[in-house]
Amino acid sequence: MPELPEVEALALDLRQRLDGRAITKIHLAAFSALKTYDPPLTALEGTLVDDVTRHGKFLDIEASGTHLVLHLARAGWVRWRDEVPEKPPSASNKSPLALRVVLDPEAGLDVTEAGTRKSLAAYVVRDPLDVPGIASLGPDPLTDDFTLDAFKVILEREGRKQVKGVLRHQGTIAGIGNAYSDELLHAARMSPYKPASSLDEEEVQTLYAAIRGVLGDAVARNRGLAASELKGEKKTHMAVHGRTGEACPVCGDTVREVSFADSSLQYCPTCQTGGKPLADRRTSKFLK
């Protein structure tokens, strides 16, 4: 799933490509992807792109005061096309194409989603806050107002909730997903099951520094990369996420995994849990 660093880089790349260009046509290939009806999708046709920004994990293309907002979900992506086929795309359950934006001249963007589980979402709105997911976002972890004191307040408010869940919840902190929450907790040498309010002063400072450092470094690495390069860049720099069975780059212990119904987490026992393997939440009590 694209998270804060990748969506930030996508926004930067598209801002440079789209600035001042006209949207001549939009083709909707996956009708379930469009979540709004007013303004209609056609309201974007004939507009000029003014900006491309990010809200959490939402990508926002603003054109003449109308916003095309995309949430790429787990398997969505945006692909630049130097040439767009003359024939409009047809709706097909087997095609990964969800939406095509045709520009003047005939370049464009394909918004795609791999797999059969379709959860990519597109919104056409006059104000980004008209998108419920944006209106309910928590603070962005890389803005100046996300201070150490603000983070302390969040952890205290979340009480006994597990810290991984707190990091991932978009209404609490915007932009962090499953992958980077694994990475942040590994960098902070902290169990994903640790209750948020149980962190002492040093642990809070360490986790805060990991959030700012890991995400900030990822944004810096991604800056200037084309959309086609971002997935590989993310995978290359993961320490534990997606690396089950491999050696931890810090201590050499084997990276382990806990599986859930529709996701999983990865961690290093030596770095994060005192050498103890975490129990699967579906069958056992949590290990602290």
From TrEMBL:
UniProt keyword annotations, A-Z: DNA damage, DNA repair, DNA-binding, Glycosidase, Hydrolase, Lyase, Metal-binding, Multifunctional enzyme, Zinc, Zinc-finger
Pfam family, one: Fapy_DNA_glyco
UniProt cofactor(s): Zn(2+)
Catalytic reaction(s) noted: Hydrolysis of DNA containing ring-opened 7-methylguanine residues, releasing 2,6-diamino-4-hydroxy-5-(N-methyl)formamidopyrimidine
InterPro entries: FPG_cat, FPG_N, H2TH_FPG, Ribosomal_uS13-like_H2TH, Znf_DNA_glyclase/AP_lyase, Znf_FPG/IleRS
Domain Formamidopyrimidine-DNA glycosylase catalytic, residue spans: 2-120
Record flagged with keyword Secreted: no
Family annotation (CDD domains): BaFpgNei_N_1
Residues of the FPG-type domain: 239-273
Similarity-based family: Belongs to the FPG family.
Entry protein name: Formamidopyrimidine-DNA glycosylase-like protein
Organism of origin: Nocardioides aquaticus
Lineage: Bacteria, Bacillati, Actinomycetota, Actinomycetes, Propionibacteriales
Primary gene name: fpg2
